[in-house]
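Researcher: I need the complex structure. Ligand is shikimate-3-phosphate. Inputs:
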Amino acid sequence: MQSGRENIALIGFMGSGKSSIGRMLARKLGWDFADTDHLIVQRDGREISEIFATNGEAFFREQEHAAIESLRDSGRHIIATGGGIVTQPENVTLLREMSFVVWLTATEEVIFERVSRNTNRPLLQTPNPRETIAALHALRLPLYESAAHFAIDTSTRSHAEIADEIIAAAQRHYGVADM
Ligand code: S3P
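Model: Output:
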């Protein structure tokens, strides 16, 4: 029996497919979709890159925490998060309390290829983004691993297949036959 308080949160590195797979999950389940980066931009009125450039990462992390807090009482939401959400332990505690936390994984090659298509990620505006990805990825892997209830690789399968597998895992997690 569903309580109506079920949520699925997607965590993972930049370019792991959180937003696109999140939208597909929301469509398939008929749930609401929330994206912490979008919530921050909506509230602040500036793009993420501008927030980083003007106020720095620490300020951004405060806004990111506020975005997660604002979803605390949600149910039937797919929550796509920013890649750095796991760097603050209080975010992880809250996400695990309120949702089934799914880690979308991808190889560094796939991540590099996906994020190279745009320049809107302030942390990757470095002389050698490939090395930056490798360093940040290594730092964050254990954080994603311990935050997640479930992990799924996104490097090769279609978004639809991945979404179906996540839904099946969420049903097992919540002990329901249908969602
Ligand atoms: C960040 C990831 C970005 C965004 C910000 C910081 C990170 O989100 O929150 O640029 O620290 O990894 P995506 O993971 O959606 O790119």
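Model: Summary of the prediction. The chain has a mean pLDDT of 96.
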